[in-house]
Amino acid sequence: MEGRPREGAAAEAEAAAEAGAGAGADPDQDRQYCELCGKMENLMKCARCRSSFYCSKDHQKQDWKKHKQVCKQAENIPRPPQPESTQVCRDNSKKEQEPLQKQQNIPEKSAGFSKARVDPRSTPLIKPVSGPESGCDPQQVGHDLSNGQAMSPQQKLATEYIGPCMNKHGICVVNNFLGDELGLGVLEEVRALYTSGEFTDGQLVSQRSDSTKDIRGDKITWIEGKEPGCEKIAVLMSRMDDIVRHCNGKLGNYRINGRTKAMVACYPGQGTGYVRHVDNPNGDGRCVTCIYYLNKDWNAKEHGGILRIFPDGKAQFADIEPLFDRLLFFWSDRRNPHEVQPSYATRYAITVWYFDADERARAKEKYLTGAVEKGEKVELNRSTESCS
Question: Which residues contact 211 (CB under 8 A, 6 or more apart)?
Fold first, then answer.
């Protein structure tokens, strides 16, 4: 590649892309992503620096203006040895812990959802705490003092369980978040939205439309919370906001100052899912992904639909079953690649992404100053390139 004549940035990008296309996909993909879109399947290594990856020549060309600044200096750095196990909080008071499953070899092409099978050995080893509406022991919840005042159940849940669990593991699960009555009310509203034809096919920000269904099979709609017939969904969003507000300042170094609308998603069975990917690979401002599941009597061995998370730098994965009234938090960036495994029954979820103030401001400035080139555009109003 070094011997080719240069005729401007476009020619240089094309040369780099052609060179990169000659490199085969690396078999070790635990920490590899397309630098432009975050996709993790069928990657090619940049032939110059051999440390950056792209899913296609086109994406390498689009990212060349940014990548060329570090391409010449990049070196292959040996990866540190991976730990044998990791642990996730399972109890709010005792802080008991349970190891995650060992990560198995995942096929590179996972788009053939109808042919995929549910792994019978997959079991949810994360034992979540119960939420404030689940009949928690009143002697354990809501009576600790903070600055002389009693802590609410939401505040205690946030400060004593969710915050510490996120900071230690980057993933946190809460069961029985709303309680049966309110949870069923949310489910009824979501079903009504779906049957009324409000849902459309999920889209990808950085992919051509003809490849979308090979990557994600969900149907979605966006809810602000003020729409008629969405009163219970609005209550859910308010409860999510309460939890995050109580956690604010305690979630890493983030300063959360906003969120997206709620993305209501339906995987209509028939083996639909979403391939392994990252919610926020390019710094669009989203720091925390929050998902609420609505699937009554869900049996993962029969229905599939597990959200499998591959925590960065760890040799294990975490399987999250999409159980009714379950709330899930995880970091939105490259620390948590994840996939929705094939679903063989109708599967509903509601997702909200929370913004870090500083990263969001940088993303907006990048957008407004035109630094983001075509194909690399940051979606500032909402993102559909995520799964639940």
Answer: 204
